[in-house]
């Protein structure tokens, strides 16, 4: 595919898994809580259980079964459900404690290449998350992880969840741009497939341990995305940054 980025003004990023390591960060946050209650499940496995409820929760909004709910609230609902799955009496846990655990999604470490790659890309492009995260959560995560966004775009801005095309198109419009002036950067092929249908350029990076050592999805690009790189530094190099 021809890689003409001459019209691109903004790079929009998937965040969870692409820019930050959600699995390790969530496992770190829940470990003391699980240990204090003698829950034998490994923290990383609990992180996977919690994350497994992510897509079904968003689908209930995408399908119209329930009105718009920001991701922070969905994550809290999913936390309650995941804790119940492992046998905890969630009603006995103070809501303040649950809300503190839920902040794990705002305290995730960037991948080792992320800050250097983003900093280099920022020299040439505006940067923004086009994430399913809500504005408050994305802002708090950016401050924690040092992510140099120029603005926050994505789900709450458009009140839609990826991979709905409106999330990509609406984000571009909110930035004052046409879809073709935005490139979507993600480690997930489905995300880029939707972005391409919405008219955005596409950049794939590999994150082969996002879901742990046994990951079986998104191990490589499965289409002719405009740019493919092993990490964000490689993407910066490919784009002349």
TrEMBL record:
Keyword presence, Hydrolase: yes
Keywords: Hydrolase
InterPro entries in the cross-refs: 2-HAD (IPR006328), HAD-like_sf (IPR036412), HAD-SF_hydro_IA (IPR006439), HAD_sf (IPR023214), S-2-haloacid_dehalogenase (IPR051540)
One Pfam assignment: Hydrolase
GO MF, any single term: hydrolase activity, acting on acid halide bonds, in C-halide compounds
Keyword Zinc in record: no
Protein's name in the database: Dehalogenase
Organism of origin: Sinorhizobium fredii (strain NBRC 101917 / NGR234)
